[in-house]
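Why does residue order matter? Because the sequence determines the fold. Keep that principle in mind as you read this record.
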Amino acid sequence: MVKVIIYTGLSLSFDEAKSILDSNGDIEVIYKRPIKRGDLIHDIKENPDIIGIIDGVFHQNSAVGHREILDVMKRGIKVFGASSMGALRASELDSLGMEGIGYCYNEYASGNITSDDDVAVMLDSETLESLSVPLISMDYVFTNAVGENIITPDEKEELIRITKETYYPKRNYAKTLSESGLNENKKAKLVDFIRTSKDIKKEDAKELILHIKKLIE
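Structure:
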């Protein structure tokens, strides 16, 4: 029996995660809410073989510490990170054995982004619903919009400047676009593009779970 613990719920709902990887006769998968400091110390008592960190708290509680993750890996437990807190911690600990997966991890690992502010969102603590849009997701969409000739590089720069100047709990596309100098026609085209764009943090979360699935099946 292989036991897996995955911290998610925000970037990817528990139901969506279970549709990719769920418990069966040979695998026990436990999905937990976004990780905070102290959770690993408690949860390793369940003797997991693999831990996947997707979501974690940044400002509501103390974030999971580097030492906690290192102590877990010293026990021989494989630890993977992606999407949000997992991507950030993996980029900081990949040289010590934590494996990072996906776009957000690569952005941190390459140095393109460096702050936890890039992936931070405001969430409803009861439902785990996201109440804002993370900077990394908006940058991803606006970069692709430039590639599709919907906006120019200079217009993207203005949109990102507005987004960065907005406190993370208040970040969303509507606020950014309303404060921009884009004309109404261009705004409408960009809104349509946003609606059909991938949620990159969700895609990274799925990739992590698929990676674990392939590893153990």
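The longest strand covers residues 2-7.
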